[in-house]
């Protein structure tokens, strides 16, 4: 429970709480958990995950967002999209070539959409496609006319549709990650804000789990790749050798909530 709804309020830790979830409750932004930790390090100790039920924590600057209103993270949802789109497409933020980009495996657009994803999102239909009888995205299927898109070229030349599609993809992936975790009695909330260490091809890698990182990781390796990482500590890599951990670290820590894309 919280007391004193003003600067310097306190919060009494409840069962199931993490610092991320507490920051989500009091700031509306779980990525500000470090502010709470730093203000209460003498109470919590050296490990931010070791909070105990009944601890009374000081909540500094409640209602005083940092980073231009986006909290203490890397930025807001749009900032995350711009960073992800620049890496995926190979062109800097604002460059119109992002949307028409296509790589050697036929992934295309600002966010490098492939056939399986656009099938799942209802834009495209095919019996043979990448990962199901095809060794790349040949785009030999048919388009459904969703959002008025009837061809690959139309999709590549529609900024608005690509921006809508990535939001649809995040929403679908989040549902699927939660479904896979739920089948094992877990949820995303069990992991948000946690620091986890993984063995990635012989190298030890520690990352902090965040919603933006989960979304990015699922975009790279699919929702079940994220679920396997969280449940089984199994990192995976894409066709070019990019690790899911790179995406979850590099695009983690943005101030993202489900309402941004649902």
Automatic annotation (TrEMBL):
CDD domains: LysM. Signal peptide: none annotated. InterPro entries: Bact_Kbp, LysM, LysM_dom_sf. Residues 9-59 form the LysM domain. It comes from the Bacteria. This is LysM peptidoglycan-binding domain-containing protein.
